[in-house]
Write a structure and sequence with these properties.
The strands form three sheets. Strands 2-1-3-4 form a four-stranded parallel beta sheet, with helices on both faces. A two-stranded antiparallel ribbon has the order 5-8. A two-stranded parallel sheet has the order 6-7. Strand 3, helix 5 and strand 4 form a beta-alpha-beta unit. It has helices spanning 7-11, 19-24, 50-64, 97-113, 129-143, 164-169, 175-184, 219-222, 236-259, 264-267, and strands at 31-36, 72-74, 118-123, 146-150, 196-197, 207-208, 213-214, 229-230. The N and C termini lie far apart (46 Å). The chain is globular. It contains ten helices and eight strands. By secondary structure, it is of the alpha/beta class.
Length: 269
Amino acid sequence: MFRYEGAAWERRFLPRLTYAEVEAMDKEDALVILPVGAVEQHGPHLPLMTDALIGESLITRTLEQLPESASVWLLPPVSYGKSNEHLDFAGTISLSAATLQSVITDIAVSLQRSGFRRLMLFNTHGGNVDLLNVASREIRVQTGMMVFYVNPHSLDADVDLVTPEEHEYGIHGGDIETSLVMAFKPDWVKADQLVCEMPQVTDLQYLTLEGRIRFAWVMSDISRSGIAGDATQATADKGETIATRIASGLALALEEICRFDIDRIVRDR
């Protein structure tokens, strides 16, 4: 599937519409999705585009599963993210936290001026997580919009397909991401350069890379190769299974979001 082709891009790509069509649209139940990724190193075997590619591919599959009646609209992805943890590796392109938050906020303000009430930030880069949590609430406060935020990894679609160690610590360029890229763009994976490098934190009782008690790190602190995980276990079939599970579950979630109204939480008590 090429960008701008297929059901997601032909029927649900918001910029394909004219301003008059957007103006006339019933926005009461409409949801606008902004994919946010990254362009950064992913070890010797994966392309710099890995996070952005995974995001576009997953959201494309998800939107193709929606019923015709669902008012869900896709924006052009923000392919660059806050990737300064990878700047020690060549090819990484990073936005500052302030720049990325400003870009996302400006997009949200523009959508609100056009009458949209719901925005989803669809993130596929771990380095964006904390920032987008903050940005989501700031947009809610500033615009009154309902803001939703999802990182597909949090849906646990891989939990029975990879080892517990990989699920917990394989956070960058390992089995999961490599399998997904193998499923989406197999020619973009250098199969003869797959690496296994697990961060040496598995023996720590309290400290973690993500969640619980964290410590600040950049990629060169925890990895020589630029990855965290075991890419040697990756397969296209595994990636296909993960992608199918995410798309199926997320499609149902999007329909729920279109029906959801935050005002009812207090009103319905």
